[in-house]
Design brief:
14-stranded parallel β-sheet
């Protein structure tokens, strides 16, 4: 360590300034609670930052750039936080690639990665699978980071199925993720308890808050995909991005205060959901393909026809295969205080995808016991505000009796209600109406690029340096076969 500067500001904390991989390795093996490892500015190639000695409450081990954004990690460089109470700050992963797993890994608890960027960190082959960030462990935070240009398989951010709870993604900027219609390229995918229909009190407890998604297309179907219980998606802004915010499966999830600005882009969608006791409240979808879609669930107790093909998943410690609904039924969902403006399709659809892929899939369970209240559906060009499915009653469907959904205080401005059961709770109003005043009254304020991501990225942009923000391209298939498309999103 002779070549590394070693500063001892107190008897309790040390700071190691390292300038090559050898010094970095020694420093990371030597740190104790409260110490800091500072990487000298410059290019670092094929550098694995493996943090295996952690800190303690109030005294994390810190790993940071000498100057935020000044440490450029290239080649096969990666970061793994393998110990608790570690904070990483100010790194830039640029133009490299790894073979598998994740560029940034949280493998312990109470880790923080902040003000860090991953830009165009892509393999030569689109089919190479790895995340840019993956959470294994509890109470970790990804804070004010920047991600641009992921053009290969796997989501940008993922959460492990088992033993990964209360992780957070907050204040981050996801920009220009090129589109390729291949399932499994969500921007954020949250696995956890509830992925296989677990109704217990466990879940991922993941929070996605205050992030900006700007032309972050990925697979073009799901931007945020919740596949677990007890998650929160709060006050995010989505701009001209293909896909939707989706409670794909799971219970007791909250989607609140989000702003989706489709800007009329084909394939920019609103909100979709499956599961029980979920709350979708106070959101805005403006200029999207649709507003809110409440899907039908799949009946799995027995075969309604000889053509049924159950969806089997390995579950439990015995790893026995059991039936799992392709889409769980929506029950006791609350949809309240949302504002839908100028969407191409319905602002609210109850029971979408009825008999989808029938008879292989038995998606015939309509939403029931849901509460739809105080939503405002504004359609300056007219069209259908509220749509829904009336179930079949001939055999074998006569066995199904669904609890009614409750509609109360919803306003339809310029649109029609084509769903008879909703008539009592939806009040049609005629244009002209100053609907722009409705938006102002609702006090929706979209996030901007100057409010998210690392401050050093913002400073470069304001100084005229946009090198980290050039549009990304993709050399990958933009279509998939009908067979694969039918199962996309499972």
């Amino acid at each position: 360590m002779a070549a590394a500067g070693l500063i001892r500001p107190s008897l309790l904390a040390r700071e190691f300034l390292v300038q090559d991989r050898a010094q970095l390795k020694i420093a990371l093996q030597s740190v104790k609670a409260g110490d800091a490892v500072v990487l000298k500015n410059g290019d670092w190639t094929d550098t694995q930052i493996l943090v295996s000695a952690g800190g303690e409450t109030g005294k994390p081990v810190e790993v940071r750039a000498e100057t935020p954004g000044g440490v450029v990690l290239r080649g096969s460089s990666s970061l793994a936080i393998n110990a608790p109470y570690v904070t990483v700050d100010g790194l830039l992963f640029l133009g490299g690639a790894i073979a598998s797993d994740a560029v940034i890994q949280f493998n312990s608890h109470h880790g923080i990665v902040r003000a860090t960027a991953v830009v165009d960190y892509n393999p030569a082959d689109f089919a190479t699978k790895y995340y840019w960030v993956f959470f294994r462990g509890d109470d970790n935070v990804l804070e004010r980071c920047y991600f641009k240009g992921k053009n290969h398989l796997e989501p940008v951010v993922g959460n492990e199925l088992d033993d990964s709870r209360r992780n957070r993604v907050t204040g981050c900027y996801f920009k220009d993720i090129p589109f390729a219609q291949q399932n499994g390229r969500e921007i954020i995918r949250v696995w956890g308890s509830g992925k296989y229909e677990g109704r217990d009190d466990d879940g991922a407890f993941f929070t996605i808050e205050g992030n900006l998604f700007d032309h972050a297309d990925g697979e073009g179907a799901e931007i945020i995909s919740l596949k677990s219980n007890h998650n929160q998606v709060l006050r995010n802004t989505v701009v001209a991005t293909l896909g939707c915010i989706n409670i794909r499966r799971g219970n007791f999830n909250t989607v609140q205060g989000n702003i989706l600005l489709g800007q009329g882009r084909a394939g920019a969608m609103g909100f979709r959901m499956s599961g029980e006791h979920n709350l979708v409240q106070g959101n805005l979808a403006w200029g999207c393909a649709y507003g809110i879609t409440v899907s039908c669930g799949e009946y799995i107790a027995d075969a309604l026809t000889s053509g049924y093909q159950p969806n089997l998943k390995s579950r439990g410690t015995a790893k026995q295969n059991s039936r799992v609904p392709t889409y769980p039924q929506n029950r006791d969902v609350t949809i309240a205080d949302n504002l839908m403006i100028g969407n191409a399709g319905p602002d609210l659809e109850i029971g979408s995808s009825y008999k989808n892929h029938w008879p292989e899939s038995q998606q015939v369970l309509l939403p029931e016991a849901c509460v739809i209240r105080n939503n405002r559906f504004v359609r300056p060009a007219g069209g259908v505000s509220v749509a829904g499915t009336v179930p079949e009653t001939a055999p074998p469907f006569e066995r199904f009796k669904f609890q009614p959904n409750r509609f109360d205080g919803n306003l339809l401005v310029g649109g029609q209600n084509s769903y008879a059961p909703a008539a009592a709770g939806c009040v049609p109003l005629k244009l002209p109406l100053d609907w722009s005043a409705v938006l102002e009254t609702a006090k929706f304020k979209p996030l901007t690029p100057d409010e998210v991501g690392p401050s050093w990225v913002i400073a470069r942009r304001k100084a005229g340096d946009t090198s980290l923000e050039k549009p990304s391209v993709i050399s990958a298939p933009t279509t998939i076969s009908p067979k694969k498309k039918a199962k996309a999103g499972n």
